[in-house]
TrEMBL record:
Superkingdom field: Eukaryota
UniProt entry keywords in alphabetical sequence: Nucleotidyltransferase, RNA-directed DNA polymerase, Transferase
A Pfam family it matches: RVT_1
UniProt entry tagged with the keyword Endoplasmic reticulum: no
Biological classification of the source: Eukaryota, Viridiplantae, Streptophyta, Embryophyta, Tracheophyta
Protein name according to UniProt: RNA-directed DNA polymerase (Reverse transcriptase)
Secretion signal, residue range per the UniProt entry: none
GO MF: RNA-directed DNA polymerase activity
InterPro entries named among the record's database cross-references: Retrotransposon-Effector_Assoc, RT_dom
Domain (Reverse transcriptase): residue spans on this chain: 1-78
Length: 95
């Protein structure tokens, strides 16, 4: 399973909201992701289209962008946790 297959779209929308993405942009991105369909070539003929329930279409140019959004969201959460002294980390290899 790829990482983008398991990222919650609500999480990505929340990250975009925190990063002040305009509502229209968030709507467009959600439409691109949530209304994706595909078909399969069988003996050279395409099947009926079917909805993609998870993931993105192969080669989708949004993939790297959405990965960066998810990573930046985690980065913001870690910074907030450290600034709140809820996580102080630990040292490795220090005696």
């Amino acid at each position: 399973e790829k990482a983008h297959d398991s990222v919650d779209w609500g999480y990505l929308d929340a990250v975009m909201g925190r990063m002040s993405f305009p509502t229209l942009w968030r709507k467009w991105i959600k439409e691109c992701v949530c209304t994706a369909t595909a078909s399969v070539l069988v003996n050279g003929s395409p099947t009926e289209e079917f909805p993609l329930d998870r993931g993105l279409r192969q080669g989708d140019p949004l993939s790297p962008f959405l990965f960066l959004l998810a990573a930046e969201g985690l980065n913001m959460l870690m910074k907030a946790t450290v600034e709140s002294n809820l996580f102080t980390g630990y040292s490795i290899g220090v005696q």
